[in-house]
Structures are given as C-alpha cells and as structure tokens.
Write a structure and sequence with these properties.
The complex is a heterodimer of chains A (221) and B (374).
Chain A lengths: L14 E6 L2 E8 L2 E9 L6 H11 L4 H17 L13 H4 L1 H15 L18 H5 L2 H18 L6 E6 L4 E6 L8 H16 L4 E4 L12
Parallel strand pairs in A: 5-6
Antiparallel strand pairs in A: 1-2, 2-3, 4-5
Chain B lengths: L20 H8 L8 E4 L26 H14 L3 E4 L11 H11 L2 E6 L6 H7 L3 E7 L5 H8 L4 H19 L5 E7 L8 H11 L3 E5 L20 H8 L7 E4 L1 H4 L16 E4 L4 E3 L15 E2 L5 H6 L1 H10 L6 H4 L7 H11 L21
The chains are: A alpha+beta (221), B alpha/beta (374).
The complex binds iron/sulfur cluster.
Chain lengths: 221, 374
C-alpha cells in the first residue's frame, strides 16, 4: 500500500543529538533506518532496564516508525513472559510507566526536530515479516511453522487437537480443530499458539481458523 | 425537542468521541472503560439478500438471543456504563420476536436506542410501539427505483412499495406525535449503483425523512465483495448533485471521509474497539463485525446467550483481546478489512496517542445530536 498522497522523502541527517528536560536522545542513521539509538536520562528514579529495551527496539526502524510506535514496541517486549500486564486496561506508553511516558515524549521531540510532522502521508511501515524470513523458500517456511505448531500441541498435551489446513503466500496459517474440541477453549488456544509461534520465529505470523461460509443468499437461523 | 431541526447538529460523517473525554482519560490511564456505544443485532437472520451484504462474510456459530438474554444484556449495559445501543450489525433485528421489548426496555433504562433496518416489517402498528423509544431509525435502501431496488436488495419489486409506505408512515407518526426520533435513509453505494444516486435522493425528498446518507461499501481483508474503491472518484459529480437536493429539513449527506479514503487506513493500532464494540446476532461478543467470522476465532470473547455481558466485560479475556488490537502485535492496515465502523474513532484516538491530536474543552459547547452513538 502507499500513502494518501505521494510522499516527498525529507532529507535526513546521519545523526540526531537532542537534549531537553533532563533527557537525551542520540540516534545514528544508516540511510532511512536507525543504526543505533540511545534514549537516556540523568534524572533519578527512571527505569534503565526499560530504556535498554527501548534502545534495542529502535534499531532498524525508520524515524517515523520510531516516533509513532517505538516506545509501544518496547512496552510489549518488556512485558513479554510476564504473567500480568502492568495496567488492567489498554497498555500504552502513557501508562506503562513514568519512564515510558517520559521516553516517548523525548523521542518524539527529538524526531519532530528533524522530521516534520506529516499528517498527509500516512505511516505504512510494517514490522510484520522480516526480509530474512521472506527470503526463505516457501516450503522451508511451511515446514518450520508446522513443526512449531506440532511442538506446541505436544507440549500442551493436545497432540491431534488441530490440523493445519493451509498456509498461504502471506504466511497466514489456517487451521481446524477436531470436532470434540471444547468451543470455549478455541480462541484462547489459538492466541496462545500464535504467541508461541511468534516468539519462536520473531515474525508476526497470523493464525486463523478455516473460514465458515453460509451459501444461502437469505440468511436463516 | 420536536425533531432533527431542534437538535444542535447531526454528525453523520465524523465521530463524537471528543464529547467523551472522561472516558478517553480513563483509557489513557490504563483503566478498563466500558463501551460508549454497542452495535449489535438480535438475530443473524434476514429477510433480504442485498448484494453488498457484508454480513454474508461474517458467519459464526449461531445461538438464539431470547427476550431474557436481551433483557439481561441491557441491564448489564446500564450497570457497567454503556450509553447507546444500535441494532444494526449483521442481522435484521426487526424480525426478532424480542425487537420491540428490547427497544422499550433499553429506553426505560435510560440507554439511547437506535436501529438500522430494511424497514420491511415496520408497519404502522409496530412503528407506533417502537418509535418513541428510539434516538434514530435508519432505513437501508440502496436504490430509488422499484426494479433496481429488487435487483440490488435481492427481493421482489413490490417490497419497494411496502418499504416506501412504511417510510411515509414513520415520518407521519413522528410529526403527529412530535417525537424526538431522527429518521434516516442509508444508501450503501457500490460504484455500479451510480444510476440510483439521484433517483434515491429525489425519493428521499418526496418521502421527507430527516436525511439520506450515502456511504461506501466495506469489504473484507481479501476483498471478497469486490468493491472497486478506485472507481468512487468517478461518482463525485453525481454525489455533489445529490447533496444539492438538501433543504432545511431534509439533508443529503455523503460520507466523504470514507469514500475518499479509497479503503485505506492511516493507523496501525485499533484503539476504538473498547469504546465501540459489536455483537453478532448470534450473541457473539467480538471487537468488531469484521472479526465475526469463525476464521477470526482468536478474537472471539464470549457469547451473551451463555454468559452475562457484565462478566464478559470484566473478564481478563475481554481485555486480552482489546490489548492485542492496541499493541504492535496487530496492524490494522494489514490485518483488517476496509474501513470499519470504528474507523473514525480509531483515527482520532491514534492521533491523540501519537500526540498529534488534542481535544478542545467542549464542556461549554452544545452537544451534538446522537452523542451516545460515537
Ligand atoms: S481496526 Fe480492525 S480490529 Fe479494529 S475495529 Fe476496525 S476492523 Fe475491527
């Protein structure tokens, strides 16, 4: 997909150094992408481990993506494997922690200084499937995905609970549950399985059930 | 108030989310917020077979929403803080035996109630019962001529006459009883229905509802309905001509924001679903109608025919799904069909989260009409 209007690529510097309100942002760019980034603060009471996670997440992102979603990625990575999310509602940089809130503010101010806010050309950056994954032959990708799904099912004692019916060209995996699999458990199982596959591959693989169709033009109960 | 002209403003192409800043602040603090609006159906069944019907793509396990189920549901909505319920979604709610009771019970509880329908079974007697409970009643009518109506909406040509009469009756009842309800017509426009834009706009002018809204047709992720979004721009002139038929008490409104968006989204995260969720006519609770099909089982949260809605809303599962949609695990540009119901709310909340949108202080501004349907 492309943006709503043709984008004129802004001329980017090779380095960004920004300070403000006790925070520093230092970014090295390699072409359009962030080669390395350091968001830091001298102020006491901030979470250095989170900032380390953030700096690692920013690597390889475009500036636009780092501005819009960089801290979100860090929040997600920082909660991976933790039992309970930090808030009961929707987690976002504004509420994850005081560090995430301040880091998002600093990062946005630093990037807005070199990359003017552009409301017309939308951000279509996508961190779905990596180049490395896409380069693998489709058969290899399929075999990997099927092996991971089998592994997960075995570990959860559900060996033959699910069969993979298709893996399409976008690596979307379609599955079917065996008929006596409890209805209420299906959504939870699918989400867990998807999480497992994603964390094992590092790729945003999507899992679906096979589509349900009603071929009657008039829909009746 | 006596009708639409007495409302401050009717927003048909936009969102009223800015008038709910208390809930936005709570969401931003990470609190669990109840939906402001729930769009649902009382059944998945339908007596029509419209060619553009998105509900055909939403098949899921069917259960029956009985009077008891909907009564409990509405009580729960009131308790948790839902403000408006629209019966639109993926079925023809007016053919459910629970329809009239659901509208009157919801209104008695103080919920804003609304309905989108093909209008076929809404004869005078039923309208007299139901209209006083509704904030708006919207008739889906995608043609202004009998034969084309029959083709596009998949019914016999004489259905057109009956629906036209029902519209006349609802307009008359509203006037006679000085009801507050807004009566609208809605055209779901596929580019190939262009010949019906003007006949329908003229029919509306004759029948005198408060408005005719002309909107794009949504499609699923794989484009199964075959909507040709790049062809909408060939219709702009006719659409402007239709808008010019508006007068003081009849508005023709084109949803330009969606028609001109060519099916694309500016945002990747879906923040709108907790503010505005959808239920299928099967009782299924899912973030939105685009995820009703069994294929999207991983997003299915529960079913009101089996579990009380307040328990579903308070469950970790509900929030797990909402969190997933709002996280980098999800990208609405890649993983959703085109331009969902929550689209405008999503745009605004995404801009707000990115620090690109600020909300003005609206505490002293007049409220728009239908404020509880964001
Ligand atoms: S953005 Fe996607 S998930 Fe969110 S409401 Fe729209 S279609 Fe549903």
């Amino acid at each position: 997909m492309t943006g709503a209007a043709a984008a004129v690529p802004p001329k980017l510097p090779s380095r960004i150094d920004w300070t403000g309100e006790g925070w520093s942002v230092n970014i090295n760019l390699s072409g359009d992408l962030i080669a390395d980034a350091k968001v830091s603060t001298d102020e006491a009471g901030f979470d250095g481990v989170f900032l380390g996670t953030l700096n690692a997440c920013l690597k390889g992102m475009t500036l636009r993506q780092a501005r819009d979603h960089g801290v979100q990625h860090a929040c997600l990575n920082a909660t991976a494997g933790k039992k309970a999310p930090p808030v009961s509602g929707i987690m976002m940089p504004a509420n994850y922690s005081p560090t995430s809130r301040a880091a998002a503010k600093a990062l946005r101010a630093a990037i807005d200084g070199v990359l003017p806010i552009d409301l017309v050309n939308w951000n279509f950056d996508d961190n779905g499937l990596s180049e490395a994954w896409r380069k693998l032959p489709i058969e290899t990708r399929r075999a990997k995905l099927e092996a991971l799904i089998g592994e997960f099912l075995k570990q959860s004692g559900q060996n033959d609970a699910v069969i993979v019916t298709d893996i399409d060209v976008h690596d979307r995996v379609f599955m079917q549950f065996k008929p006596d699999f409890p209805l209420d458990d299906k959504p939870i199982m699918l989400m867990k399985l998807e999480r497992y596959v994603r964390s094992a591959t590092g790729e945003r693989i999507e899992l679906f059930m096979s589509e349900m169709k009603d071929n009657n033009r008039i829909r009746r109960l | 108030m006596t009708g639409m002209t007495d409302h401050t403003e009717l927003i048909l192409d936009g969102t009223k989310i800015a008038w709910h800043q208390d809930r936005i602040k709570a969401w931003e603090r990470g609190e669990r917020v109840a939906p402001i609006t729930i769009d649902m159906a009382l059944t998945r069944a339908c007596n029509y077979a419209c060619h553009y019907c998105y509900a055909m793509l939403q098949e899921n396990d069917r259960k029956s929403i009985t009077k008891q189920v909907i009564t409990d549901f509405l009580d729960d909505c009131k308790e948790i803080g839902v403000k408006g319920i629209s019966f639109v979604s993926d079925g023809e709610s007016t053919i459910s035996p629970a329809f009239v009771d659901a509208c009157t019970h919801g209104a008695k509880l103080g919920l804003s109630m609304a309905c989108g329908t093909n209008g076929f079974v809404l004869t005078r007697r039923k309208l007299e019962e139901v209209l006083p409970s509704l904030t708006y009643l919207r008739i889906n009518i995608s043609a202004g001529e009998r034969d084309r109506y029959s083709e596009i909406m998949g019914v016999k040509p004489d259905y057109f006459d009956r629906v036209s009469q029902n519209i006349r009756d609802m307009v008359a009842i509203k006037r006679e009883r000085k009801l507050d309800v807004t009566i609208g017509l809605q055209m779901v426009l596929m580019p190939q229905y262009r010949d019906q834009i003007m006949p329908l706009a003229r029919l509306g002018k004759e029948l005198r509802p408060d408005y005719l809204v002309i909107k794009h047709c949504s499609d699923n992720e794989d484009g199964d309905l075959g909507v040709e979004y790049d062809k909408y721009n060939e219709l702009y002139e006719t659409l402007h001509e239709a808008e010019a038929l508006s007068d003081d008490t009849y508005k023709v409104v084109v949803k330009w924001s969606k028609i001109a968006a060519t099916g694309q989204r500016s945002y990747q995260r879906c923040y709108g679903a907790p503010f505005m969720i959808q239920l299928s006519g099967s009782g299924l609770v899912a973030p939105c109608g685009m995820l009703f099909n069994e294929r999207y089982k991983k997003f299915h949260i529960g079913n009101i025919c089996e579990t009380r809605f307040k328990d579903i809303y308070n469950s970790d599962r509900y929030w797990e799904v909402m969190r997933y949609l709002a996280s980098p695990d999800f990208n609405a540009q890649k993983m959703c069909g085109s331009l969902c119901l929550q689209h405008k709310v999503n745009e605004v909340l995404d801009g707000y989260e990115k620090g690109l949108v600020t909300f003005p202080d609206l505490s002293h501004s007049p409220q728009p009409a239908h404020i509880n349907f964001v």
